[in-house]
Specification:
It is built from 13 helices and 18 strands. The chain is of the alpha/beta class. The protein folds into three domains: about 110 residues, K homology (KH) domain (GMP Synthetase, Chain A, domain 3, 2-Layer Sandwich); about 160 residues, P-loop containing nucleotide triphosphate hydrolases (Rossmann fold), CATH 3.40.50.300; about 170 residues, Rossmann fold (3-Layer(aba) Sandwich). Strands 4-5-3-6-7-8 form a six-stranded mixed β-sheet, sandwiched between helices. A six-stranded mixed β-sheet has the order 10-11-9-12-13-14, with helices on both faces. α10 links the parallel β13 and β14. α1 crosses α12. The protein is elongated and about 85 Å long.
Length: about 475
């Protein structure tokens, strides 16, 4: 097995075969290259619509814990402090063969002010978009004035309401749940989100009330875009500008966004699902409490996305952390667009400095499109859609085998691999093994040096585009069988 070089992103495998095998491969490559094939294909996925279940309630009644119980994993950020969840956050869930979206929300307070009022507004929007609403009440406390103020709003929504009496951890506290009949929302379902007690009965009731198709916003259909970057670079402001309303809670304090926040936006004549994420700090291990889990969820948001919009504060020098985040997207194999935010704060001198920084610090991703934006004024936001679409098209591009081998034959003829140790490795045959991202398998007579693979990648981009997407090259290297 040929060892992978340090820092090399290419995966190298051995290919066992004798001289006759490789002679046949070479002949096949020549035959394939002589034929004309269809044009480059863009492969696009299709996915279904899902109904929506919104989890709402006042602060610290266990909504996010219930979300994690329903999901069967620790996805929502949970901490024993009110106000950790600040935006409405979507997850895909299922129960008894029924798939649906689960929307976690921040605490709903009737007379809230400041940031808490913004959080309450997000909960109201979640109710408006939902097909079924789960109203979570702390059974050990009983129905409070805040709970009772929410009831008329829920009734006015005309949505099916399921009342969850949370924190019923044992049979002794079940009597506390019966007192919640006073809210007038029907039967309270006793449940312990922490221990799972009664969660099955609650889910049975939720699923029974779900429509076959969702009437609210959908998560699966639009193309998924993760908005990522350091804390306080303007990610949430950008999402609000794209959405046309205050979708994400925005504050000058870094770290306001904790959970990933999503919104379906129409841009460039197409629907996109933008996911605002928590700012990624210098090192995940240095974070504590909910910040640590928020960083982990940001990484997952990148992995679940199709394209990442990396937001960099143009008014400050490009930092090591900015470069690390870009590399995180590349390593995840996602399409990439870089947005330089806060452009309204730039002067001519800073623009010249930024141009030099891009040349020096982002030299590893010259193929990524960049767009200058301002979340405050809206400058450049309307151009984001076309850059995202271009990156996605490249990410999904498949090059026909015949066209690829004709390209490789011309490349090797004009620029063969250097001779090393008296040997000159040759590319016998190539095929595109996968899309999303484009992945190429090259059958060779020996190991191709890192620099030569970079040359192959650069020529692939020159001939076939691939703007805004990483490219992976796998080698299948001849390994002669030992004669017995």
């Amino acid at each position: 097995m040929t060892e992978q070089q340090p820092g090399d992103e290419v995966y190298v495998d051995d290919y066992a075969g004798d001289d006759e095998d490789f002679e046949a491969l070479a002949q096949a490559a020549e035959a394939v290259a002589e034929h004309e094939y269809d044009e480059i294909e863009i492969v696009e996925p299709t996915v279904p619509t899902l109904p929506v279940v919104a989890i709402i309630g006042r602060p610290n009644v266990g909504k996010s814990t219930l979300v994690n119980r329903i999901l069967g994993r620790r996805e929502a950020v949970v901490q024993d402090v009110p106000g950790v969840t600040r935006d409405r956050v979507r997850y895909e869930a299922d129960w008894a063969g029924t798939d649906f979206q689960l929307v976690d929300t921040g605490g709903w307070e009737h007379d809230a002010t400041g940031m808490r009022a913004d959080i309450a507004q997000q909960a109201q929007r979640a109710v408006d978009e939902a097909d079924v609403v789960v109203f979570v009440v702390d059974a050990t406390v009983g129905a409070t004035d805040a709970d009772e103020r929410v009831v008329p709003i829920l009734r006015a929504s005309k949505k099916p309401i399921v009342l969850a009496a949370n924190k019923v951890d044992d049979a002794g506290t079940e009597a506390d749940a019966t007192a919640l009949w006073s809210l007038g929302l029907g039967e309270p379902y006793p449940v312990s989100a922490l221990h799972g007690r009664g969660s099955g009965d609650l889910l049975d009731e939720i699923v029974a009330r779900l429509p076959e198709e969702g009437s609210g916003q959908i998560i699966a259909g639009p193309r998924r875009v993760a908005i990522v970057g350091r804390p306080n670079v303007g990610k949430s402001s950008l999402l609000n500008k794209l959405a046309g309303h205050e979708r994400a809670v925005v504050d000058n304090v870094a770290g306001t966004t904790v959970d990933p926040v999503d919104e379906v936006v129409e841009l460039a004549g197409q629907e996109w699902l933008f996911v605002d994420t928590a700012g990624i700090r210098r090192r995940v291990k240095e974070a504590s409490g909910h910040e640590y889990y928020a960083s982990i969820r940001t990484q997952r948001a990148i992995e679940r996305a199709e394209v990442a919009l990396v937001v960099i504060d143009a008014s400050e020098p490009i930092s090591e952390q900015d470069i690390r985040i870009v590399q995180m997207v590349v390593d995840a194999g996602r399409a990439l667009v870089i947005a330089f935010s806060k452009w309204d704060l730039m002067d001519d001198e800073r623009r010249r400095e930024l141009a030099r920084e891009i040349d020096l610090d982002l030299v590893g991703v010259p193929w990524a499109d960049t767009v200058n934006i301002s979340g405050l004024t809206g400058r450049g936001v309307d151009r984001i859609g076309k850059h995202l679409q271009k990156a996605l098209d490249s990410w999904q591009t498949r090059v026909p085998t015949g066209r690829l081998n004709k390209f490789l034959a011309e490349l090797v003829a004009s620029h063969p691999h250097p001779v090393r140790g008296g040997r000159q490795p040759r590319i016998l045959f190539g095929t595109q093994a996968a899309v999303r991202p484009p992945t190429f398998a090259l059958f060779t007579t020996g190991f191709l040096e890192h620099g030569y693979r970079r040359y192959v990648e650069r020529r692939l981009r020159e001939d076939f585009g691939f703007v805004g997407t990483p490219i992976r090259i796998n080698l299948r290297i001849r390994e002669k069988r030992k004669r017995r």
